[in-house]
């Protein structure tokens, strides 16, 4: 079976036309109309809370500003390999995916409130976030920097540089503050951290010269470099490998059902097909774990 997958051929290139504009308003919910034909896994369905099963829908939150993982297609609907995988999970559960596009930082609180069943927005599973939600892990990812082609940027020697980043990510909250503190502790200039709501604005800041480099997850950085054809290059090595996970209500049966559905996708080959189509099969897992993040 061939799973629908479309790279954002225009998504990364479009950052050239941006001028720092951001969209912080919540957008309307969207019902998916092109969910792949996935065989329902009755054992996974049996784990669902009755309220979700009876509704026939899996409500999923995403930021949709992080191509190629999650982004908006030409009609404003969620697209990307992260969206494909989440919709495949819904298919295994016999549910119709119902998407809500909103700011990254508001997804976990809405899961805690019970307004969303799941978050699919390239969440890095870490110990701090595990205090609020569970994570069903689906990819090993790491951080990769990008800078203008031909630059001398070194992520291990970035004191005094301006570095753009998506707001609320581990790069924004953990990596860059730690690097900057190491600079100031050594008597050097701090890193100027430039957070933006969406990855296109992050990339645009580097392309337009407002930032010296950006830091993001490997799939995102690789796609930006590929799409911008010679304007950007990766710098330094991939580091801080950590798992991505679907966010679900802490200690819930939903977590168990999503885990079982993802494992079913792994077992029947659908999972690896989606990752291979996206070119990120090197980060594939063989087991759907829960809360595997250790940092």
UniProtKB/TrEMBL annotation:
PROSITE patterns the UniProt entry points to: PROKAR_LIPOPROTEIN
Matches recorded under SUPFAM superfamilies: Periplasmic binding protein-like II
A family per Pfam: SBP_bac_3
Signal is among the record's keywords: yes
Domain of life: Bacteria
Protein keywords: Signal
Domain Solute-binding protein family 3/N-terminal: 57-278
Signal peptide region: 1-19
Cited PANTHER family: ARGININE-BINDING EXTRACELLULAR PROTEIN ARTP (PTHR35936:SF17), MEMBRANE-BOUND LYTIC MUREIN TRANSGLYCOSYLASE F (PTHR35936)
Protein name per the record: ABC transporter substrate-binding protein
Annotated source species: Leucobacter coleopterorum
